[in-house]
Each structure stands twice: as C-alpha cells, then as structure tokens.
Amino acid sequence: MDNKKKLTEAELNERHAFKMQKKKEARDKILATKIIEKGLIIINTGKGKGKTTAGFGIIFRAIGNGMKVGIVQFVKGKWETGERFALDKFKEQVQFYTMGEGFTWETQSRERDIIAAQKAWEKSKELINDDINDVVLLDELNIVLRYNYIPIDDVLIALKNKPKHKHVIITGRNAKEELIEIADLVTNMEIIKHPFRSGIKAQKGIEF
Model's pTM, two decimal places? Predict the structure, then answer.
C-alpha cells in the first residue's frame, strides 16, 4: 500500500517554485564568475547536417544586433543558396565572398581547387584582420585544410593573432586537432538519420 500523500496542485506549484528559485540562485552565482569578454573561435564540425546552417545562424544573430559580418565560402561556389539571397538584403552590414568552384569531385582538378582555396584564404585573412567586421564566417575551411590546400600553420597564426574582440566561425567536416585545441567553442554534429540515405534529394529551403 502506498502511504505517500498525493500533493495538491497548489503544493506542486509551491515545490516547483522553490526548486526553481534554488536553481536560479545557483545559476546567478555561476554567471557572476563569468567576466571575460573576447572574440571567440567557433568550430562546427562532424558528419551530421547543420554545420553551415549553425554558422549562418550566428551571422543572422549578429546582423540583428547591428554588427558587421564577413563571409568566405571555400567550396559552395555554384550553389545559389537561400542564405546568400537573404543576406543580399543587408549589404551595408555584410561582405559575402563565394570563392569556391564546387566540391572536389565537381572540379576534378586538384590544381584548380588549390588555387581557389588559396585565393579564398587571402580574402579570409583580410576579413579577420580588418577593423570593420565583428564576425567572420569561414564556411568549409575544414575541407580545404583536410586536403592540405592551404597550410594549417598559416591559419593557426592568423587566428592566434586576430583582433581581440573579433569572432571567427569555421565549418566543415574533419576539423584539424590543432584548430580544435585553440578554439573556444567546438560542436560536433552527429548524424542519426538523413533523408539522402532514403533516396530523397537536397531540397530548397532545407539544404540550400
């Protein structure tokens, strides 16, 4: 026989309020210790979908806060994406450079891929070091680093010496360990299910 007294709605509400008050006090105490302000190095990597999407999410949040942003796309050269169309409406706040020629299996030319990657990296360094942009998104940089199209040491030096308050977001699978080590925020996107595996093609508004 269960001798536990069944609580009334009023008692449940009171208990909940007490727990939430304690949780808020603990949370406020933790937040009071977080006093450092700095530009973050953010990496979105992993095999799951959403790395670029998450990066653009930060870009749109920054724009909403009146910040200026710079974007370099290392791979998605031929794709007419929804992000690009949307950001065309904020030209005073956005510098957008699509400098890739598509995925490596599309160009089928290692030499062309290397030249495109190096040009994109030169533009990236300009955006990282300027005094205009608050946030810089380097979309699919991890891919060109994986193939050693640009030297990782050059990337590490640029990131370590970036302006103090500038945020840099890097996306793409297979992030280098050296990058992960110096990053402030790293998210690994895991794949559980993907429609492509069921024969469903990439769809407007979802993949591009």
Answer: 0.85
